[in-house]
Amino acid sequence: MQTDQPGPGTQMPMERLTCQQVTDVIIDYLTGDMQPETKRLFSDHLEGCPDCHAFFNTYNGTVRATRSLSYDAVPDEMRNRVRQFLLKTIAGE
Ligand SMILES: [Zn+2]
Fold first, then answer.
1. Angstrom distance (rounded) from CA 78 to CA 93
2. What's the total number of domains in the chain?
3. Residue 8 domain-assigned?
């Protein structure tokens, strides 16, 4: 009898994150507001994706730097990302 074991080619829905998803959850990772499972997928993606790895390093460095700088020193792109994040939060997504 067949068991419920997934055969070759079967993919779990959350088996890997796309680059878009990674950039979306980076702020969650940095704020620690991320589920362990997502964190693992996040780390896995960074290991296999130089683009996201570089983006993460830049982002992480920016966040750390801005903690000791004034709000005016935050790059526009960063501000937009934070703004989007806040709008999403306010919208209850
Ligand atoms: Zn990527």
1. 20
2. 1
3. no
Give distance in angstroms: CA of 14 to centre of ligand 1.
15
**Domain contains 87:** yes
In a domain, 6, yes or no: no
CA of 55 to the centre of ligand 1 (A): 9
Can you give the residue range of the structural domain that contains 65?
19-91
pTM beyond 0.85: the answer is no
Q: Identify whether 3 is part of a domain.
A: no
**How much of the chain, in percent, has pLDDT values that exceed 90?**
29
pLDDT of residue 5: 57
State the distance from the centre of ligand 1 to the C-alpha of 51, rounded, in angstroms. Answer: 6
CA of 38 to the centre of ligand 1 (A): 14
The three-point CA angle 65-72-59 to 5° equals 35
Largest CA distance in the chain: 65
pLDDT, greater one: 80 or 50 = 50
